[in-house]
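So, could you explain the following?
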Amino acid sequence: MKTLNLLLFFLICTTISAQGTQLLRQPTLSGSDIVFVYANDLWKVPANGGSAQRLTSNEGYEFSPHFSNDGSWVAFTAEYDGNSDVYIIPVSGGEPKRLTWHPGADVVQGWTPDGEVLFRSAREARPTQTNKLYKVSPDGGFPKAINIPRAAYGEISPDGKYAAYTPITFWDPEWRNYRGGQAMPVWIVELATGELQRTPQPTKERHLDPVWFQNKVFYLSERDLASNIWSYDPLTGDEKQHTFHKKFDVKSLDAGPDRIVYEQGGYLHLLNPSDNSTQQLIIEVKGDMNFARPRWEEVKGNDLSHANLSPTGKRALFEYRGEIISVPKEKGTYRNLTNSPGVADRYPVWSPKGDKIAWFSDESGEYQLVVADQEGSNPRSYPLPNPTFYFEPDWSPDGNYIAYSDTDYNVWVISLNSGNVQKVATDRYAHPNRTMNPLWSPDSRWIAYSKQLNSHFKAIFAYDVQEKKEIQLT
């Protein structure tokens, strides 16, 4: 039995190790190498995976890497001097060379066929035309604008005749299955004549991150309700889906000489468009990762959030970096009530008597409600239905219930004696601030909250916990 247990432990460890490092982002592919972003730095790895080599180590953010046409240089955007500008670095490593100096952000998009760096900039921005594409020589000099009035993401075709691009940036690119005014197709323009094509959008889906590969435009589309790779042939108008992921979206892609590399589920993958075969790469990233080491942090007042005053007014609760902290008004010292590295503890609230506190914690893997004494000791966890993010807990004056809302616009009430949870209201429409701010009446019988009407105007509603009925007050 002992031998079997050791064998199982070895197999589990081997399986975890074989999966490689996750959260690898924004890959670019040459004939032999991949460069990607990890922990805000650039790393290089052989095209079939393996151990990665660090290329950059700046304190700021390095992102949007793109190989030169011959694979000898990498262009990227970085914050070396405090601003986001265009840099190049040899693929073997070395000192980055700065190419742009404008105070706005210059974001690399790729390389032109004649070997200049293509980037996006708002240096000539005006209403309705906030971004354009520019090119700059790797030897330096003034950038030159591409003759397109408005463009945000895109590339020039290898023959230099076409540009494939999306005209605008997005205020929330992580909004999955977005259908709205910012859901743009890929625009394909013939640079000599200005003749324009657009990729088809039968479901009004959003198209992102266009790249050229074998005279076709490859891009990300959410047509099948997940972000996958599609292609469009400007000559024939044919379109084709190449990946079929369901659970996790494809986040970015880039084309190499004979394959496409893309980011999905935290890993990097290679795609062969000829037969749609894919390969998940096993990549190991090893470094000092100083940002992840335990360290002292100076807490400033502006860093504290979700303040909650004790009933006596002598102490207050705050949330800071996933910890719940109790701070005295005058005498005494602060207390870290949770002291839980690796756990997100959120939204602390005092009990009516001040002898207990409650908060939401994801220590179990999903957020649960935790109730403990005011020292943070003797915690009791309450599993909650509809696992998601929860907001704004409010303790009933009699101390028996807590009301809260969730990211799906529901108001819930939990009985602290039994642990039973009931949903008491749901908002009619989505809104940016998520929470419905439930508050208890002094007799602990009613919960008041705001909710949208069919007109989208908000009204105040109240819910009777005893009779289990809702009434509209305004």
About this structure: The mean pLDDT is 92. The longest helix spans residues 2-18. DSSP finds one helix and 42 strands in the chain. The first strand starts at residue 25 and ends at 29.
